[in-house]
Structure formats: structure tokens, C-alpha cells
Give the backbone structure.
Amino acid sequence: MTEILADGGPLPRDLVTRKSLENAAAAVAATGGSTNAGLHLPAIAHEAGIAFTLDDVAEVFQRTPLLADLQPGGRYLAVDLFRAGGTDAVLKALLDGGFLHGDALTLAGKTVAQHLAGHAAPDGGIVRAASQPLQASGGLVVLRGNLAPDGALIKIAGLKALQFEGRARVFEGEEACFAAVSDRRYQEGDVLIIRHEGPKGGPGMREMLGVTALIYGQGMGEKVALVTDGRFSGATRGMMVGYVGPEAAVGGPIALALDGDPVRIDCSKRSIDLMIGQDELARRRAELRPRPPQRLAGVLEKYARLVGPAREGAVTHAGAADWPRE
């Protein structure tokens, strides 16, 4: 591999293309992978000067079937996937099903199709053929509605139910919610809303894994929902909706939610809404006051001032697409 790179290629711009980004999103969807892909792929695209936002990621997620039966939503571990052929087994199933761009380049200089030529077919258990998917649509879904006009992400792989309705319990930050969950100051049917944890509000978009793990540890799993403008990891499961945009720090609708508001999440319809009237939302917006500024210093202060929305990769600078042309 070193020799290939030393000979002049392929170069990063040869590898990071629209097709390769769509391939990456398809691989994430097919494995029920991390919601972080909805953040990282747009950020990578930004560096390469490619317009590829959460909307584009959502389109790939929707058209790609779930093929790998992996934890936490499924039955098998990463080591089982390795023994069944590894990531190439997933890519082969996607390619054979027409869900992958076979002409995209690999680091070795071959195309994806050339790399996968002769690879064994999926085992049918850990990795399914595209004709026999676990789900017709990928393991991740982008939701939209009056609570998340710019989108929100949820992993649906392994979910027992795709709909949830409940009453909001609103928390200003992860610590407040963690304390309430620790003391069991919540109940079945609640929609726990953690706000001001987005790229600007955090700042830095922390992972809400502590709260979600505690909820499951208390046996409440899918008995409650959690909605946040923060983020999750690949280990998250249940009715956990993250990356809500616009975030609370910039006045997104999540900043308008109040305790007791009815919330409806419908993953089959890809929707997430506060079930209150537009007039009431407008009244709350008119009365909304900015959150007092946090005491930040150094890099965090610069980050909070410069960072963009999660749907565009939470980047802090102009990418190649924004550079002036000579």
C-alpha cells in the first residue's frame, strides 16, 4: 500500500467523491451503524468541496436495506462479522443488490467492484443478501417536523415499535437530565428533552451515552423516549433521537418546548412533532429570551462562535467549495 501511495496515487481527492460518500452512507445504513455518520460524512465532504449534507445522507439511508444483524440492535458482535467475511461481506451484498457505486476507487487503486470480485456471498445470517434484508430501509432514519425542521437522527435497528407519543420533560443540559434519571424522577411515557447540547450550545455536541445507558440499566429502555440537540454513538439503542436541528442555542423549536407538551415520534413517517398549534409556537417564540452566555475561554469560545449546524458537519471554517476561484 505504501508503494501505491508513493507512486502518486490515488490521492485523497480521487477517493473522496460523491460516489464514495454515498457508498459510506450505504455501508452505515446496511449495518445499522452509528448516527455519527450523519455528522462526519458531511464534514468530510466539506473538506473536499462536495455539497453533501444530512439531506443527502438521509436519501441514501432511505434507499438502502438493513443487511447486517449486529448489536446493539441485532444479535451478533463485530467479531462474528469478521468471521463471516468482515466489511467486505456487507459491501459485496450491497454491490450485488445494486446499492453501491462499483466504480468508486479504493486506496489500492482498484475500483470497489474489482476489489470485491470473487468475494464469497453473504452467509445469510450475520449478513443477509439484499434480496432478503432485515428491513427494507436502513437502520438509521432522519426525522423532520416542527420540532426538528432541519432534521434529527434516530437508529431504528432493533426497535420493537416505530412510533412513540408522550409528554415532554425538558432539561437544560445533560447533567440535569442525568440527575433526574438517577433519582428516577421520570416515568413511563415521558419524552425526555435535553437541549443546549448542540455544536454551539454544548459547545461541542457531547455524546448523551451516559443518560441512555442509565435508562436501559433501569429497565426503562423503550418505555421512554429521549430527544436532544446533542449526539449519540453507535452503542445507543431505543427511541433516542439526536442531532435535532436547528439547535436550541440558535433558537430552534426545541428551545420552545415546555414540560407537559405532547410529543409524537413516528419513524415510519419520518416525523417528530410538538403536538401544539402554530399560534402557540409563535407566541412562545416571541417571548423567547436568549440563554445567558456561558463562561468559556480559549478554543471553546472560538468554537462556539464559529461552528456551523450539525446537518452540515458542524464545521468551523470554509471548505474547498467556499474557496475563491483563481
Remarks:
- The CA atoms of residues 215 and 221 lie 6 Å apart.
- The longest strand covers residues 163-172.
